[in-house]
Every structure is written in C-alpha cells, then in structure tokens.
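Crash report, auto-generated. Payload:
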Amino acid sequence: MSAIIIFTSVSIAQVILMIAMAISSVRMFYGPRAQDRIIGLDALYVNAMLLLVTFGIGTGRTVYFEAALVIGLLGFVSSVSLAKFLMRGEVIE
Amino acid sequence: MIYSAADVPVWAAAAIAFFLLFGALLALIGAIGFLRLPTFYERIHAPTLSTSWGTGGIMTASILFFSIAGGRLVAHEILIGIFITVTTPVTFMLLARAALHRDRVENHPDVPTRAELVVSTIQDRASDEKGA
Amino acid sequence: MELVLAIAIGIMTSCGVWLILRPRTYQVIIGLSLLSYAVNLFIFGVGGLKSDEPPLLVDGVAIETLTDPVPQALVLTAIVIGFATTALFLVVLLASRGLTGSDHVDGRSDRR
Amino acid sequence: MIELSHHLIVLPILIPLITGAVLLFIADRQRVLKALVSLTGTVALAAVALLLIGIVASENSFDGVYLLGNWASPFGIVLVIDKLSALMVALTAIMAVPVLAFSLARWHSAGAHFHSLYQFLLMGLNGAFLTGDLFNLFVFFEVMLAASYGLLLHGSGPLRVKAGMHYIAVNLAAALLFLIGVSLIYGTAGTLNMADLAARIPTIEPDRRMLMEAGAAVLGVAFLTKAGMWPLCFWLPSAYSVAAAPVAAIFTLMSKVGIYIILRLTTLLFSEGPSAGFGSDVLLYGGMATLAFGTIGVLASQALGRIGAYSVLVSSGTLLAVIGLDDSAAISGGLLYLLSSSLTLGAFFMLVELVERGQDAGASVLAVTMEAYGDADDEIPEEGEGVTMPGTLAVLGICFAACAILLSGLPPLSGFVAKFAMLSALIGTGSIGVPPTAPALAVVTLVILGGLATLIALTRAGIRTFWSSIEGTVPRVLVIEIVPVMLILALTAALTVKAGPALAFMEATIRGVTGPQAYIGAVEKTVPLPSWRDLQPSAKGD
Amino acid sequence: MFPYPLLTIALLVMWLLLNDFTLGHLLLGSIVAVFASWGMAALRPDKPKLRKWYLLPKLFAIVMVDVIRSNLAVSWVILRGRTRGHHASFINLPLDIDDPTALAVFAVIITSTPGSAWLEYDSRRRSVLIHVLDLIDEDEWRDQLKNRYEKLLLEIFS
Amino acid sequence: MALPFVGSILIALLLRTNSRLLPASVAGFIAATVAIATAALYPFVRNGGVVRFEAEWLPQLGVNLTLRMDGFAWMFAMLVAIIGLMVVLYARYYMSEDDPVPRFFSFLLAFMGSMLGIVVSGNVILLAVFWELTSLSSFLLISYWHQNPAARDGARMALTVTATGGFCLLVGLLILGNIVGSYDLDAILAAGDQIKADPLYLTSLVLILLGAFTKSAQFPFHFWLPNAMAAPTPVSAYLHSATMVKAGVFLLVRLSPALSGTYEWFILVGLAGITTLVLGAYFAMFQQDLKGLLAYSTISHLGLITTLLSLGSPVATVAAIFHMMNHATFKASLFMAAGIIDHETGTRDMRRLSGLLRYLPITGRLAMIASAAMAGVPLLNGFLSKEMFFAEAVETHADSWLDTALPYLAVIASAFSVAYSLRFIHTVFFGPPPVDLPNPKPHEPPHWMRFPIEFLVVACLVVGIVPNFTIGPFLEVAAFSVLGESTPEYSLSIWHGFNIPLMMSLLALSMGIAIYVVFRDYFSRCDDGPPWFRHLRGQRIFERVLVTLSWRWARSLEGRLGTRNLQPQLRWVTFIGFMAALLPLYLSGFQPRMIAPSGVDAPFLGMWIVGGCLAIGTAYLAKYHRLAALVMLGGVGLIVCTTFVWLSAPDLAVTQLLVEIVTTVLILLGLRWLPKRANTLKDELTFRARFRRFRDFLLASICGVGMAFIAYAVMTMRVPDAIANFLLENAYTQGGGRNVVNVILVDFRGFDTLGEITVLGIVALTVYALLRRFRPASDSMAPPEQQRAQSVFDEQQPDRDVGDTVRDYLLVPSVIMQWLFPVVITLAIYIFIRGHDLPGGGFSAGLTMSIAFLLQYLAGGTRWAEERIRILPLHWMGSGLLVAAATGIGSWLLGYPFLTSHSRYLDLPLIGKVPAASAMLFDLGVFLLVVGSTVLILVALAHQSVRINRIRAIDESREEPS
Ligand code: NA
Ligand code: NA
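Recovered output after restart:
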C-alpha cells in the first residue's frame, strides 16, 4: 500500500515537475529579455534538482543525491555569471 | 544501500506523498507565474515559490522517506534547502539590478530613477526622525 | 527509452552539424558543444539503457543486472576532453577575432 | 616480480610525461635550465627507444606486451611493442632530439611552455604507437592533438591562429567521429582491446558485425583525417606551412600516426576472417586521390613551406595507396618510405626556415608576433649569440639539394631506395610473370608523377631561393640550427647505405603484422602476475 | 588555528550530514572543517560582528513562517490570474544596518520570501529598493521589514 | 670506379682554396688513374670475357652493386676516362680565377663517376641510379654560372627533361624486371625472346626509349641540349657531346639484344632517329652561336646513331658503336676549339667572328680537321662510320616506307652536315679580320690547353687512316660483347671500291658544298634558328607547357580540389563520416532489430521534448542571440545531466553538471571579446546563400537521422560477453572499490585517465600561452557599454564616485559568495573522498574546487581575489601529473607493472578500518591537475580584462603627448 502511495505520488510529482521545466524553458526561448532567459535557466535548474530528488525517493537510493546537491550549491554559478555579464558586460573584472 | 518503499508505514507514506505533491505543485505554480506575469519585476517573484517551499516540501518528503525507511535520521537534504535558499537570491538580485539598469537607460516610465529614490529616502529619513 | 534517446541524439546531432557548418565562430563552438552532448549520449547508450541500476556494488544486488560501467567511464573521459577542447577552441576563436578583427571562421571581414 | 627491463615498454610514454611535468615547475625565465631538462628527457627517450628497437630486432621471443595495472588482457589496457611500434617510437625519438636542438636556437622562447608541450606531444605520439587498446588510442590521440594545437599556435600571429582554428575545428570533428567509432565497436563487440577485438570478429554474428564494421569505418575517417587523405586534408597544408619550423618538423610524424594506425588495424582486423579486405578500396583510391592532390599542390605552390606541406600529403597518399593495395612486399617498401620521408620532411621544414630567414618571409611571421604592448613577458631574443657558420649558403644549398633529391625520389638517396622498393614490389620482380594489376600501375604512375612534380617544384623554388636573389643576403644561421638538419640528412644517407638490412627489418616487421595471429597470440599469452591481493588473502574483503 | 569557530562547527555539521555520524567522520570532518575555515580566513572578509548569535534561531523561525505565508499568498495571486489583478510596486526603504553580512542576510530573507525582491542597495544613501508583487498597504510592509527583520538583525549583528 | 666520387668529395673539401691547380691536379690524377686501371682490365675483356664485381646492397629486391665490364663497357669506359682527362686538362686553363674552381672539378668528377657507373652497371636498376646521377651532375654543371639566367633555365630544363626520362626508364626497367624476374643485366640480355613475347613488352619498350631519347636528345626531346650550352665549354665538350648524351644510345646498344629486332623497335627508334638526324642537321645550319651549331650537330649525329640502332642488324650495331667513338673524338675537340675561340675573342656569335685563322693558326687547323671528320670527309674517322651508315641505309631491314625513305634522308642529312661544317670553318677562320670583338687581341692559348684538341684530332686522323691497326681490335671486342655469336664480318678499310655508299658520300659532299655556297649570305645574316621553325622554339614551348601545366592548371586544380576555408572542410568531414557509417550498413543490408522498447517513462519523454526544443532553439538563436543560445545550451546540458541520472550514471551526472557550469562561465568570459551583433541586419538571402543553407540543412538532417538510426540499432543490441562483466565482478575484490566506474577510471583504465588529465593540462598551457599574446580587436578595447554608462552615471551624481554602482551591486552577492568558499571546499573534499565507493572522484572534486576559486574571482574581481589567494596553477598541474605518475611507478618497487594498484584497510585506533588504496593517491593527482588546469584557464581568460586596462592606459599615455 505505502509502496503504491509513494510510487504514485512520486510519478505525479515527476510529471508536474516536468511540466514546470517545460514552462521554464518556454521563457528561455521567448525571453523577451536576457534576464527572463536566465531566470528560466535558473528555474530549470531548480526544477531539475527537485526532479532528481523525487527520482531518488522513487528508487530508494541515496546515490543520486550528489547530483542534486551539486545543483543546489553550484547551480547558481552559471546564472550568476550570466547575470553579471548582463550588468557589467564582463564576468570577472 | 537501497531503501524500499514497502518498509514505510502508510501514514508516513501519506505524509511523504503530501509533501511531495505540495512541493511539486508549488514549483508548477511558480513556473506558471513565471510564464504569465506581465513584467519582469513581477516575474522574478514566481520562481521563489519553487526555491522556497517547493524545495522545502520535496526535501521534507525525502528526509521523511529515507529516515523512516532506513530507520535512522538521514537529513542531508537540509543542506540542499539551505544552499538553494542562500544562492538563488544572489542570481535574482543581480538580474533585477541589471534589469533596473537597462530600464533606466531606456527611460522606462514605471521604474524609479535614482533621483526619485534619493528624494524619497530623504523624506523617509525625515519622517523617521520625526517619528522618533 | 531507446527510441526517445536515439531521437534526442539525432536532434542534437542535426543541430550541432548545422551549427558547425555556419560561418561564425561562436556558432561553431556552440555546435561543437551540442555535438559532444550527442556523442556523449551515444557512447553512453552503446552499453544499453537501464534505469536505476547504477554500477555501484551493493551487497545483495546481482552483478548481471547492473548497467555496463565501461561506456560510463569512456563518457567521463570524453566529457573531460570535450571540456578541454571547448576551452581551447574558445580561446583560439578569441585570438582569431583579436588578430583579424572578425569572428568569421576564415577571418574574413564582415559587412558590419 | 617482473624484470626491470620489462618496464622499458612504458618508458617512452612516462619519460616525456615526467619531463613535461617537471618543466612546469621551472619558471619561463630560466630558459637554460628548461632547455637542459627538456633535452635530457628527450635524449633519455631516444636512448630508451634505441634500446627497445635493439631488443625487438634481436630477440624474437621478446615479451612485448605490458599489462598496465597488472590486469589481464582484454580487461585492462595493454601496451604492445612489436617491430612496427618499436620502429615508430624509435623514429619519433630520433627525430625529437635534433628537432629540439634546433628549437633551442630561438623558437623555444617564442612563447610560453614550448618545452612542456613538446614533451607532451612526444608522449602522445609514443602512446599512440604503443597502445593496444582502442580507447586508450583515442586518449593518446587527444594528448598528441592537444599538444599539437599548442605547438601549432606557438609563436601566435594571424596566420597561425587562422590555420590553428581550422586545424582544431576539423580535428575536433574528427575526434567526435573517433568516439562514435570506438563506442560503436564496443557496443557491438564488447571489447576495446585490439587483439581481443581481432580474435572476436569471427565469432560475432552478422548483424552485429555489420554495425562493427560501420564503427570501424567511422573510426577510419578520424585516422584518415589525421593522415590527410583527400578530401579530409585541406587543413594540413595551411597548418604545416605556418607552424614554427621545429613544430612543423615534428608534425611530420603526426600524419604518420594516422598511417600507422590504419596499417595496424587493417592488418589486425581486416586481413583475414569474415571482414577481410574491408575498406581497402577506400584506402587505395583515397590514397591515389591524395597523392594526386598532393602532387598538384606541390606544383602549384611557390613557398617552400607549402611545398613541404603538400609533400606530406604526397607521402601520406603514397602510403595509403600502398596499404590499400595490400601487398606485403610493397608495404615493407612503404615502411622504408615512411621512415625516409618523415626524416626528410622533418629536415626540410627546419631547413626552409633557415633558408627563408634571409628572405624576410619567415621573419615576417615572427615580426607579427613581436607587436609589443608594454608587457614584455616573452620577447623573442634576436639571434646573434654564437658565431654564424662559414660557407652558410653552400651548406644550406647542399642540404636543400639533398632534400630535393630525397623528396623527389631521385637516386641514390633513401628516397629513391624506398620508392624503388615499393614500385619494385608493385610491378617488379616480386611477381614474376604475373602482370601488375591496373591499380598497381596507376599507383606507380602517380608515385612517379609525384616525384617529378616535386622535382620540378623544388628546382624552381631552389633556383629562386639560392641563385636568383640578387642582393644575396646570407641568412644568419647558428651551428645549433644547421647541425640537426645535417644530422637527420646523415640518417637518410645511412639508411641508403644500409638499405638492405633496413629493408630486411621492414620485411620482418610486416611479416609480424600480417596475419593477426602473432599479435593476438602475444597479447593473449601474457597473463598478469599473481595478484598482490591474492598473495595476501587477509587483505581481502572488508 | 580556529579563525571562525561558528563556521568551523557549521562545516563539521555539514560534513556529518553528508556522511555517517561515526567517530571517524567526526575526526575527519573536524580536520576538513578547520582546513576549509583557513580557506575562509585567507579571503580576509570583513569580519561580522556577531553578538547575539543565539537570536538566529528566532529569526529563522520567523522567516520560515513568513515564507510559508507568502508562498500561499503568491500562489493565490498567480492562480487568480489577470482577471482580478494585483498591485505590484517599488518600495524604497532606508536602512539602519550597514554590516555587510547583516545586509546579506536581510537581502536573502527578502528575496527568498516570495512576493518581495531586493533590487538595489545604495550605500551612499543607505537605502534599498524593494519590489513587492502585491502591495496592499505600503506602510504595513515597511513596518514588517523594519521591525520584524531589521530590528532583529541589528540586535544580532551589532 | 668509386674513385671519381671520392675525388669529388675530396675536392669539395678543398672548396675554400683559391688555387686552380690543386683541384685540377687531383681531378686529372683521378681521371688518369681511372684510364690506366680500365686499360689494365683489357686483357680480361679481350676474349669476350666479363669482369664482375658484386657488393650487397638490396639483395631482397635483386639489386646489388653489381659491376660488370665487358668489351663494350671497357671501350666506353676508356672513352669516358680519356676524354675526361683531356677535359680536365683543358678546363684547368679554361676556367678563370674568379670562378669557384673546386666546385667545378668536384661536379665534374661526380659526373665522371656516374657516367662510369652507367657503363659498368651489371644491374639495370643500378644503371638507372647512375643514369639519374648523370642528370643531377649535369644540372649542377650546366648551372655552374648560376648568376646567368640562361644557365639556370638551361640547367632546369635539362634536369626536367632528362630526369623525367630517367623516371620513365626506371619504370620501364621495372617492367623488364617483372617480365624476366631479375634486374641482372646478364639475365635480361639472355631473356630477349621472352621479353619480346610478353604483353608488357611494348609498354616497357616505350618507357625505356623515352629514357634513352631524352638523354640522347632525340626529337622531340632534343631542345634541352642547345640550351645546355650555357654551361662552361669543358662541360659541353665532355657531357653534351662525348659522354652523357651517349648514355641514351649506349643504353640502346646495351639492351638491343633484349629489345631490338621487332617491328615496334624499328618504327619507334627509327622514326625518332631519322627525324633527329635530319632536323638536327637542318637546324645546325642556321645557328649563329658556335656552340649552338655544335649542339644541333650533336643532336643530328645522335640521331644517326639511333637510326643505325633501329635497323637491328649486327653491322649497324657495330657501325653505331664505331660512330659513338668517332663522334666523341671530333665533337669534343670541336667544342674545345669553340671554347678557345670564345675564350680568346669573348664571343661565340658567328656573325661577329671572321678570319680568325691569322690569330689562331694552330687551333684553326685542328678545328678544320675535326670539322672535316664531322662532315664525313675521307681519311678521317667520321667518314668510316658514315660510310657504314650509308651501306646499312640502302639495305632493307623492315619493309616499310621508312625503310624506303632512309637512304634519301641519310644523304640529305649528310649534305646538311657538310654544309654546317663548312660554314663553321669558313665563317670563323676565313674572311676578313674581325671587327669590334669584345676581346680585340685574340691569340693562341697556352700549349697545354690546346693539347687535348691536338690529341683528339690526331686520334681522328689515325683512326681514319689506319682503322684496323687502331680502333679495329677494340671495336671487335666491343661488338662481340654486345652481339656475341652474331657478330658480323665487317671491314674497316677506307676503300671498298666505287659502291653505292661512296656515291652517296660524294653526293652528300657536293650537295653540302652547294648548299653552303648558295645560302652563304643568308646564313651569315639570318636570325638565330632555321626559317619556318624559328618561332617554334623548343625551349619556349617547353617553358610554356611547363608553366601551364605545373602552374596555371595546378593552381586552378588546387583551388578547385582543395579549399582554404573551414566550412567546406567541415562539410566534407561530416559528409564522409556519414557515408562511412552508412555505406557499410547499406552494402551489407543491415536491418536493426525491433526489440520491444523498454517502456517509455513519461518524465523521461518529457525531459527530451524539452531538451530537443532547447537544442533546436540553441541552433536557431546562436547567430544573433548569443547569450540566449548559451542559456539554452546550458538547458540542454542540464537535460543531459538528468538523463545520466535517469539511466543509472550518477557519476556522469555530477561531472556533466560541473563541466556545464565551468563551460558556461568560460564562454561568457570569451563573449566579452566578440563583436556585438544585432539582428537588425539580416543577411539578404541570395540564391547562393539559400542553396548553401539548404544543403547544410540537408546534411545536418541526414546526419541526425543516421546518428539516431545507428544509436537505436546499437542500443537495442545485446553483447553477451562484454568485458564489463569481468570488471563488475572484480572491481571490489581486485580493485578495492564499489563504484565500478571510478575503479575503471583509476585502476582498470587508469592509464586513460593519466592521458586524459594530461590533455587537460596541455590545453591549459596552450590557453595560457595563447592568451599571453592576446590582443583584442579594436572594437572590443573599450570597456563594455554597461560599464561606461554606469561610470557616467556615477560621475553625474554629486554624491557618488566612479565604481560605486558596481560596489553596491556586488555588495550582498560577494558576501554570500565569500561565505560559500569554505562550503564549496568542504564539498570538494567530500566528493573526492567518497569517489572510490560512491559517485564522485578526483575529477569532480577538482572541478568543484576550481569553482570555489572562480566564485571568489566573480565576487571580488581579479585583483581582490589574487591579493588574498595565491594560486600557482602550474605547480598544481605539475604536482598532479607527478603524483599520478609516481603512484604508477611506485608499483615497480613491488615488482608489478605501472599503475598496479594496492589497497588495504588500515586499522586505525578509534576509527576502525579505513580503506587506503594507492588508487586514491592517483586520484589525488587527478584532483590536483584538474584544479590547476581549470583555474589556469579561467584565470588566464579573466586576466584579459585586467590586462586590457593596462594596455588602454599605455595607449592613452602614448596618445597624450602627441
Ligand atoms: Na522573493
Ligand atoms: Na560623482
């Protein structure tokens, strides 16, 4: 029973997160501004991270955690660089 | 080590399912908001749904699942929560500031210029002092 | 799964090939990146696709069910080398741009 | 315990690696120390290579398989030294010393980290020659390529950067094909070890084998790009002609890596069994096309550097066509030709720089890089230390003539001997009474035309360079620059005199590679040492 | 030796969360934590004057609750769609805190709370521009920001 | 025989001497020694004997240093040696002090050696070797005065023509070798019938004849010889009359037993010979240059010899050999005489020369005798052989029009030769004294300079008068060695009665005189070259053909078949890559198996719908929206990363993610230096552009489809016995790790990893080296517009300083990023340590560590970061490589191969068992290198912004004073 509950909820959560990712990627394509695209990427990262965690719950393994952890801690680095590039035209001054 | 969902009691499974769906739905709402809100400054509020309790919900679900299925506290998901909370604002702040800069360069009417802000700050300070 | 991944590889290959045939250096570098994604997934795929059978030895899990680790190791090497060459190509295109003043792959001056 | 001498096999890879790594600790300012370390490493490499070829040549029983990490053959990576790989390693090492010496006159200080890159290039070359594993081959290919990118760009300047970008782009694409090919082979044959692959081919069921062959073909495209087969070769003339002289000289070996691997793999995988003869037509006609294109290019070129670069194509085309003809006697001659043409072209590229130095053409490339902007971190020191040689022009002229004779295959130097050995096998006494085949005759014709074109082009260019210059400014050449050139040319002379034994060695080499059984047997019979882990059972488990 | 004790402890906790709670990892984690805090020391950041650090949990709790509340609020705004509309606006807020770390904490709190975003800080004027998604009563917002968070932060970072 | 080469080198070593005597003496000594040595061999060859010498060279290919001297070779060798000696003697006086004499004698001896080599080769390949050597030495000798353009061009032409012929000859000989099975001359000569019956006979014959004809200047390859007259006269005398040009006919004689006697031989050789004979003589009459006249005469005489050889009859062969000798003697002496005239008067133009007999009485008379021999006047040697020629000409050899026409043509050519001989003598030595000579006071040369002419003229006379007592026996021996048993009976006497040949001789003589008398005035006035053909000069045609062929056509072909642009190259690579995969499958009829696809996972499908769209979006936006393309590329990378997680590759996911991050930052760092590109300027789509796009689109599409097809085919294929099984089974028991991927990376295939990190290191070094020289394009020099706008803003605000905006902007982020520094370091260590058993490892850890550094650069800027953290990337890299290598070498000490890993569990107090594998140490090396390289690359790029400020400052300070 609990296996079914968990399996079902994980599956639904994954589909929902998938849809969220798809929506984020729409902004990545249409913008209209670079800022929107970058936030889209950031959102994509976060949603993907969540997806990975749900995947971990679904499989009952902790080995996929590291990927999520790396996104959580370092995923922002690329968006920060992009953001700084927008603001200053240069990433490292 | 592989944790089996069958080892989890039903109440816990229900709780896990709740947190999972709660988190996922927040993430989805955030995404929808991000898509639908009309201006950039409004749009940046939406994704924080998934970085705050969206993440929170799913991390809680994960902590519950692994701790209960494994029989001992597994809480490293907290770290993800903390990291996401600390790092996402950095991007958003920088992007918002960049947007502000560009809007000011383009003389966007809705965006306050620094001159206006200086005036309002002085007024505020004055009123604060009055209040004090 | 196989079909989905195969089509995905195909799409990335197409986009990558299209881009590396373009005249701007930036398009070429993006194309090479896309192509290396495609190729990495391709290498990864030759071992067969299995979900949730990572090649980690855990007591009680039959070895036969695990995913082939060799392609994974190859992909890791390929990722590293791909990263290195992307960095290199980037710098070379910068140098070319600096020396010729153009970002055309043949250093031609553009109609700007 | 294995004998210490067995470790010799891995040394051609390790010596340059360690030398290159040690060089990283030495600051650029300490040029002399850097040069000294680099030279020491290269000389040590040459010593090891000679030792190896000596062992391989003398003993038939030499156990030439090295199990890296003590893993049994198809599971780990093996290094295999047979006569062919020993020959290539020796060629590399022997070329490396004079070329490095040449670079010490000025080129090594034309940019940062020349010596490290040079050592890593040697490492890549040797690794590619020695490895018995397809993916490891990819890795060493990349080591070699990465180092070659660096070296090609050494000295910078618009010409080099443009050629470098094309070179890199094409080779990146080829590297991707390499990966596709290797992984297809793994996905269909389940192994990466070349010997194991050869042994498995007969047992693979048809549809897997078809896919495996497709993989091999894709892999072949990568090698052919490196070897410079038409129409995958357009990057080569530009890259080789703009590279710094010592770099171009050592690059001549790089196109031979492609040839070496094609020879190795065709003999190993496609010489018998169900896939026999796979791809040989492509090699034959591709080789002929390359030969023709190279010939046209040689004729069309005015600059000596481009003539040299197109000669590389001529050389590649000849070898590919000969391999495609699949005649072991001709391939033996081809090996001799490979040796001779590599040495000659190496010497030629260095010579070109010396010769053109008087004409300001080469100097202008340097001058571009000299654009100073305040930070003088790497200026190229003007030459002038040391005494210029007396009779410089005469010596240069003699060397040039020797190169022209060698490249065009005129008697009596090794260029002729090698071409003769090939042609003789294709139409000569090798097959009494059996008329030569039409493709063989076509190859012969192209080889002869190639030689003729080279002769015409080099005479034209040589006359213009040495005799027509009115002002007659004698280039200032240092002893350390001309002696390496002469040394390499002396080697070709030695090859001429000792042509008989040399050819005998080549024949033995080819006997060793035709028919995969010897190679497969050598690899299979090598078993790992009893494991350290097995010796200490207590350490097992957790 | 221990330049940032609080940081070192936090890192140790992080280590233990990542690995198992064993004696070995305690030891190893301590070494790693000390090593990493040396790395921090090398950066020579402006050292935060952390005074009442024990108030941090209180701040944390307040924020958690506020975040949940604003999560729901913002969700509502989004789901309601355009039909009803909302009132997005900029607020300029003069600040009393000037410690960089405190400012950072403040910024993180504001930004990670859905519905408000930290846009621009002006060091000369010591004021910050904040964007609010659905501004119903500006004074209430100001009040909440100043009294709920800034005051507490001022206490923590003297 | 090696002697001349030794001498050549010896003299080359004397290059610096100024003396003319020393090199000449050495050369003379060597020539004399050769002559004496050869003479000493006479007893051995006299009775049909053969002297052989063999040294091994290429035994496998049947080519050894086989020297073989029979009578014919002996005779030729004597000729080479004696005339060589004479020429050396002559040259010793001829060469001026200003010339680099040692070089001359060195080349001359080299030539002599090569020529002797041809003569005594007992192996046809060896013969070909010496053949080309004569071409080379001839080239060097003709271009001896290389400051003279004519000498250069003449030399080049001679080399091109003769070397081409040489190559043909070589192939022809190779085919002969194929027919006979040996390159040995004796074997080939013995296999005449076999050769003539072989289907390849004609091919071989044509190729060999091409060799012979080019060397012997037969029509239509004759044109190089007159141009070779730019050489010093001794060279002309020696090479271009007496010896080298004889090599061709020598070869014909040599191989005649094997090749001659067929109709093809007769037609090919005869046609060439007769044409050359007639045309050469005809052309010679109209030459104004003394040496030109002699050169064409030589051509004509060579044609005569060739014609004789075409006939195939034994007597004709004897006559040919005889005429070779005769021609050598009189033509050499005539050249030397011409050389003296040139030397004394300073010109060789017959229009300027006149009445020289009064100044050069002896030389003049010698020349007259030699000319008479050339014209075939009785009592001289030329008469005898020409008489034999006439006798053969009237006989029928092969029934054809050629045979019928031969006697008439022979007489006509002979008449021409009388005419030009007469002209030579009459113009130069008779008539009024010359006016305005460059050298107004010609006089007889030193006696020893004239001696060679005297010697040779005496030889002409003696042979002409008493042939049987002089040349007779030797000719007999030579003829016998060629013809063997079929050596004919022939008579060398002067008087055979009034027969047809004599009538022909007389007719020719009188016709020749008549021609000269009639056309005398025309000859003395006309331009150089014969009428009608004057403008059709071989040289010019040759040059034009060469230029067209080797220059224009080659260039246009090079352009057509090759490219110097990148796009076509990449198009080729992708196309051929596609074909390489497709063709084998198509040809073998491959069909993918349709296994039931393992159930499609909805999120996975969704992921790739997103991923595919992002990829297409990337391709679409990459041209005008670089940043957008980069963002979307990052999205694709993220999807790839989740795919790895989904499909059981957590290690790959982590690595991919980290690489993704670093790559994005890298490209952003680079984007700063690329030009701004606005999409307002759309390319106008010409038809060409449309077509190109369509083609590329097609190529991209088929590549994609093909790749998908193959990917699907291989993914659905199961390999039963892949090596993976072993690796999975032994990773823990033997490799000591539970993460099999990591065990493969650091143990099973650790060598790959060693190479891979080297690649990364190399690239970092290259990036660094290249960026040290980096100078941005002028439009990227200025600070980005955002920075400029912000600075302006700061300046305008009364209460702000420049830089305040950026300071405020980064205030909060930098605090956070600083605090993250130790956290990321901890994460890096964590990833590193767990790698062996769980996902992670040195590479991911290294990348994480470098991101930690990167963040500090981002937060505080380059200066700020470098004031605080001193990273020495090169040392990290060096240590990484050394640690990895040392770990590998460490196993040697235990007697194991490189990189054998050793693991054990250490029992530590309090902590318990701790795994300690040498593979961890190796992984440490990886870690160090990755950190070093990544940081070096990023920092080198980041530094450009700092550097640009410096450059800008310098530029500004430069501009200000001016
Ligand atoms: Na917010
Ligand atoms: Na101001």
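Post-recovery validation: The CA atoms of residues 90 and 97 of chain C lie 10 Å apart.
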